[in-house]
Amino acid sequence: MVEIPAGRTAPVLIYEVYGIKAGINGQPDIAERCVLSRSIWSQIAEDLKQEFNDRLRAKKMNPSRWTTGRNLVERLLGKELLVLAWAVERAKPEAIPNAIRNWRGLRPEERWWLYTMTAAATGGVDHGNIGWRKALRYALTENPLTELSVPTPVKRPYQPACSDSLRSEAVEADQLSLLSCLQEDPSPFWDSEATIGTTKLRD
To answer: Which DSSP string do the residues of 131-193 spell out, in sequence order?
Structure first.
C-alpha cells in the first residue's frame, strides 16, 4: 500500500499489508517498509505508473493512476515497487534515472527475487543503509544498462551422451523442477487477498 499525503512536501509511505497471512509465524497485520521524500517519489511515480499500466493492459484490465491518500497495490506489483523504492530511498537525485532504467530492464521474476532476498534481512523502514538494501542501491544506481548485444551462437558438434529419449526426459525434468520452484510463491496477477493490495491507479 502506498500512502500519498495531500501536502506537496510530506513524505510518501509504503506499507506491506499481510491480509490473510497476518498472525502466521508472528507476522503483523501491516508493516512499514519504506519512506520516500516527496521529491524522490515524484521522480519514480510516472515510471511506476507506466510499467504497471502496461501490465494491467496486458491482462485486459483498466489502466490506473496514483491518487492522494491510500493506494492499494497488488501483491507482486508491490514487491516490484519496493525494489525500486529501496534502491532510490537514499540515492543521489542524479542517480535515480539510472536506477529506473535498470529496474525497468529487469524481468518481474528478477524483481520478486530481489524483494525476497532484501526483505528477509533488511526489510524494515530503518534498514536503508545496511546489507541487501545498501547492495540493492549500488546495484541499480551504479550499473548503467547499455545496448544489449546478442552474442553469436557457437555451433557445436552433436555428441549424444545418452539416447535422445533419455535426453528429452532429463530436460523436461529440469524444466518441471524450475517451474515448481517458481510456483512455490503463487503469482496471480490479481489477488483480492494481496499482501500489498491492488493499485488504485486509474488513468
So the answer is: HHHHHHHHHHHSS------PPPPPP-----SS-HHHHHHHHHHHHHHHHHHHTTS---S--TT
